[in-house]
Amino acid sequence: MSSDCEQINPYGHDGRHKSQQVEAMFDNIAPAYDFMNRAMTLGIDKSWRKLAVNLAAREESSKKVLDVATGTGDLAIALAKAMPRASVIGIDLSEKMLEEARKKVAEAGIADRVVLMPGDCLSLPFDDATMDVVTVAFGVRNFENLERGLAEMRRVLRPDGRLIMLELSVPQSRIVRPLYQIYTRGVIPMVGRMVSKDTSAYSYLPASIAAVPQGDDMVRLIRNAGFKSAVYRPLTFGVCTLYVGQA
After folding, report:
1. Could you give the strand order of the β-sheet that contains 87-92, starting from the edge strand earlier in sequence?
2. Could you tell me which residue, 22 or 197, shows the higher pLDDT?
3. Residue 100, beta-bridge partner list
4. Which of 101, 109, 128, 193 is an S-S bond match for 73, by CB 3.0 to 4.6 Å?
């Protein structure tokens, strides 16, 4: 069963697979990515990541953490700081995003515990049951095949390991939703065109958020991927959702 978000591509029907388009898009916007993240969320994305990190850090026995779609490394770095006994691996399709992440890891002085490498979420380069925690922040809507990506994250998790996932979502409130739509469909693309050389990226963003499975629908997909249980929690009026799956 395919998801609507798999049909939403950054550059439309230009002949490339979604994964190839996503890689190209993030290569293009890598220098502006962190600035746009802070601007789009008014800095609230930091509190969302902190919540995910706190959940991961509760797993005191965790020695190996995988951050999928690590981007410029914000979550991987925060995980390493909060879990000093754990090693963190961050993978991403985009080499340009990884370049930005490597600079930040070096500045943080944690290059000995954070490994950054290119990798495809649909074919993770790790053996079965080798990870204690898998995280992914704002990345699953970019998966070319969401069910396969979830199944791969389940595959590499040890029994009773935990998936911690953040994804942007559409508020359900009749008061908040119209304001959200004006902001995401009008303001964000306009600012994105001013800051980034890629004019398509920030139009793709609201379209992909609207199309990705949310709430109970995402929980069903997580459970169908082999997780024993899954729960979700809306954050900040529902503009972001935290999902937790137990392997």
Report:
1. 114-118, 87-92, 64-68, 131-137, 157-168, 240-246, 229-235
2. 22
3. none
4. 101
